[in-house]
Write a structure and sequence with these properties.
2 domains, Rossmann fold, alpha/beta, eight-stranded mixed beta sheet, VC0802-like, 28% helix
Length: 360
Amino acid sequence: MKYLFILGRNIELSALEVREYLKRIDNPILEEKLIDNGILVEISKDLKENTISQLGGVLRIGKVQGEIEELKNIMIYTGEKNNLNYTLWEFSSKSSEVLEYLKKRFKEEKLKAVYKGMNSKVDSQDGEEFFIPGSKLIDEEYFVFENLFGFVMQKCDYENIETRDMRKPIRRSSLAISPRLGKIMINLSGIKEGKVLDAFCGVGTILQEALLQGFEVVGVDTDAKAIKGAEENLKWFGFEREKYSLINFDSTRVTIPECSVMVSEPDLGTTLKKTPPRPVAEKTLKDFERLIIRTINNVKGKVSGRFVFSSPLIRIGKKRIGCNIEDICARTNYKLALDAIDEYREAQFVGRRIFVLEKA
């Protein structure tokens, strides 16, 4: 089976998430190719219908129907309406040829079909541009990837994700982790079963995303107000109380139950409105390093798998600096399981660098 994953603005991070997610569900990639923000993969088993709900960095999932030369043998439209709006995701030099064929085919089948272009621009994190559909009134989405043609089968439900994030009882706006990034980090952890530990849970964004995927969770935070907020949010979501445990304590000294992985966003430091002096930035990074080292060393006897955490990525002039991961690994006896990935907006003075560690 061949599927196309259409990736979000952080293409490197989203592609890595797809690879690690497919490993996590025991359906690893046999072959892949990346063009712009589309990664085409060959896997051995079909994907479930709700796959995209478990991914944070994917806009669409499509399934290959055949080669362009076989288009006449592919049923293009299976709907009941006589009119439809459609669009085409383009990852091929043959896109114009396919569009012309679709117009002709719809006309022959006496369908009133209107093409809706990709006219909404997105700036990727690496400075490139890609385009997405500008209209919400689209019935069918197709794609062409090199010489392959397919249908978009699953779409990210942005509105649902935003609604549940904005309407939950307790929110933190300053440097709060998004549900999207929470999902990505959970997938990078490789967890298949067991409990997810968030040692700096705040009001519970990572906890909620893990619970939505069916995992039990343990949340720890030194801030009693944050723990109360997490409790309110998880109740609002309707999660069963026995599925989660919340602990108001210092993660560098807390006692926790057995967990499979840790997925956390520790304190990234003070929210900055301008570039800080280098000594201030370096102190923030050193403080973070001490905190994460002490936390990992405290809980690693109870965490059997990976540690996934974000860390401060601070802009100094035109460059961004991050913490000393080599020192963190050396002082915890862990190693990098995956290359570090940066996640930031150009205007942000403090972004994130995401690390995935495993036992050395």
